[in-house]
Structure formats: C-alpha cells, structure tokens
C-alpha cells in the first residue's frame, strides 16, 4: 500500500451493502451525472481495439463497486467515483456514450484474470502499477499517484505528518497485517500502534479519543473523511508512493497509447480536473496533476 499525491484502496469501508452484483450494466443515468462530450468523429485503424469498440458502440469496464470516491455502486445502481469518471472520458474518446458502458465489479484479486479472459476491455480500479502485474497486463498511465497518509480529528493541528507523531506522543490506529501498519513503525514505537481488523473500528477509536490518528492509503482515508466531514480531516502529507494505472490486454500497446493520448487531452481541456473535483475532490483539499505517463509495453 504505497502512494504519493493523494489516494489508494483495497478499501474495507463504507457500506458492504453498496457492493452489489458482480457485474452490472451501467448507464449515464445510473452513473452519477452527465458524461463527457462524446467524440462523434472518432475513427481508428482497422483491427485495433479502438476500432472494434467504436464499431460495437459499447465498452466493458472493470472497476471497484465498494471504493468510496473512486469506484462505488450505489443502492440505486449508480456508479460514482474518480475511476468511473476517467473511464467515461476514455469511452467518450472512443465515440461511446456513458450509458453504453457495461460496468463489471472487479475486486483487487481478479483484475489480471478478467483482462486475460477478455471479460472486460480495460480495468480502472485503484490498480497500482508494479512489475509483477506488468508481466500479465499492459498498463496505461499512471493517471493518479496516491500514498499512505494520516487521518486526524478536524481540530488537531499538532499532527502535521508522520514525523510529528512521536513528539505528539500520538497513538496511531491501523489494520492488523496491513502494509501501512508496518510502514508506520518507521515513525512510531510499537506501544503507540493500535491494531483492529477493519478501518471502521479505527475511525470509531479516533472519534472517541482512544487514538490520535488513523493511517492507511489516502484513498481509504478520504472515503472515511467523506462520511465524517465534520469530525475528521486528512493530514495530506503522503509518505509512500503508488501509481494507479489502467490495465489492458498484455501487448495491446496501441490501445495503451490511445489511452495515454486521451489522458493528456483530458489534462489539457480540464476534464481530468473536473473528474477529480466532482468525486474525490469533494473531500480532498488539493487537485492532483496528471502524473508523467509511463511506457506502453
């Protein structure tokens, strides 16, 4: 669980009741607002993934259904979050409207599998780029850089980052067996660390004063903050790095390069910023810039 500018996931939070069906047909009416302007003039080289999808007039996207602010399926079937909005931008550039996106629930453990089996056309699901995963899929991006962070009470100004924890004699909560619970030991003594099985219990402990801070990837923390806006805040000083990518079939470099072009265009025309501000930006205080894109391989 590493990262750098703002968030990540694997989230154990916010409504298991919201994680519905493994696969669901989505529509713009069911996905949290109007989609981006569709490129009606889109034309692609014959035989490419882009041409196939454009001709079909539909695209299947793998994402999380239980990740507040990034990929969340509501009780009404609506799809919401930053990953969802970026997927809509890619679809629009393919000439496909948001109501023609078929959303497939894609938990962390199945992301490579659904790409390899052709169950989705691409995966955007708080999907960290790393060498092991890149053996099985081609990554476009990163489109976002996240990182481990701290959540504190809204009136706490003593904790300004991990380096301030010892001097503040702060008790910190995380989840047993998680990478963040190990990483935070670089900054606090074992006696200062409180562990639970889920982050919702850490939030309760912070609320009632048992601990002074909660630590994990900032994606998870922002979700918790969004549910407790009057009580909690994100410190906003990530101290690990993890780049989020968009997974496509291994070796489909043309599709990867198309996604890169689409991301650059979105950054230039403001649609990337809008996607952020409409979702995670409702909680996060800063708007990220599109990270430097990697090499399609």
From TrEMBL:
Pfam families: SBP_bac_3. Residues 58-283 form the Solute-binding protein family 3/N-terminal domain. The keyword Signal applies. Residues 1-21 form the signal peptide. GO terms for biological process: amino acid transport. Keywords: Signal, Transport. One of its GO terms (cellular component) is outer membrane-bounded periplasmic space. The keyword Transcription regulation does not apply. Belongs to the bacterial solute-binding protein 3 family. This is Periplasmic component of amino acid ABC-type transporter/signal transduction system. It comes from Saccharomonospora marina XMU15.
